[in-house]
């Protein structure tokens, strides 16, 4: 039986390609992996993180602006307060200074009065104590009178001759023993006088007198100290 060949249309021929063997050794392209499908939870977490970051940035900006405004207002208020405080402080300092100055003057006057009173009392006590020491010293060392007589002899001039040297009776023998020759050369006569306190003397000339009695010398000392403490006889 004779089989007839099937009829192939022309349009169908274009849908076919001729098979050609591939060249050996040519690289065969790898199959590309399919794109990974994103995890919905990860996407949501990232979105929430970005939202939180934006909110924190906005809050930080507001806080910074608020702080800046507060600092500016505080600085302005502080400057005004300082100026007002300085003015009020200056007035208070001036008032306090005046009060302290008045108080200082009052204390100074009070202390001066106290110091003066104390100084007077101490000086009077010292003078009384000095009298006691002088009397005791003359009683123990009566020769302390000799330097006084020697000074009077040196200062005596020709016009003061002759002269009488009045002494306490207990001092006459002492002066005669130590200065008798000098008194004789000066033309002085020794005379015992119980009214002359021991330790002192009185030189009498025709022109006047030189009073070196203990009471007189004491008065000169107290007068120099602006005191009137008298010499008290033993």
Automatic annotation (TrEMBL):
This is Flagellar assembly protein FliH. Keywords: Cell projection, Cilium, Flagellum. It comes from the Bacteria.
